[in-house]
Fold this sequence. Notes:
Layout (H helix, E strand, L loop, with lengths): L1 E5 L8 E5 L25 H19 L5 H11 L5 H16 L5 H13 L4 H21 L11 H23 L7 H9 L4
Amino acid sequence: xxxxxxxxxxxxxxxxxxxxxxxxxxxxxxxxxxxxxxxxxxxxxxxxxxxxxxxxxxxxxxxxxxxxxxxxxxxxxxxxxxxxxxxxxxxxxxxxxxxxxxxxxxxxxxxxxxxxxxxxxxxxxxxxxxxxxxxxxxxxxxxxxxxxxxxxxxxxxxxxxxxxxxxxxxxxxxxxxxxxxxxxxxxxxxxxxxxxx
Length: 197
């Protein structure tokens, strides 16, 4: 940064540009209090090490704000700031839509594409498909004015849904790093179902 300063008090009568560093502080953002009990995020050496590896591996993609990954990351992160389970689900589903919807009919394609990307055929794929489809339907009720507030028993399922979103973002980062940025539904389907590019 540069600052123009008058140095007349030192006998210098002209303005000079001088290099300087300015520090501004803002008060820390308060942590939003959820209206449901949520387990604290575990932050230990192992977690930090994993974060550093992830950060070093994918920083260039995140920094360049590559779509749709950037949108998914923003929505995923903002899900942590939501006070209700319903609002958290809405944010997570927007993240999933950014990755998997690509302007197509969403109710089946998002769960199908996500489940196929994350798991081989079998029980885990079926569970992922069913859970994501269930939350797509719940999200639709919420945003279209239905009074749906998820109960406390739904917390474990929401956590599982969040894990699918997290794994999906990492998978898209891996693909992008390898030069396979997905920009269309057809491209995604070719990769998932036909081993195409």
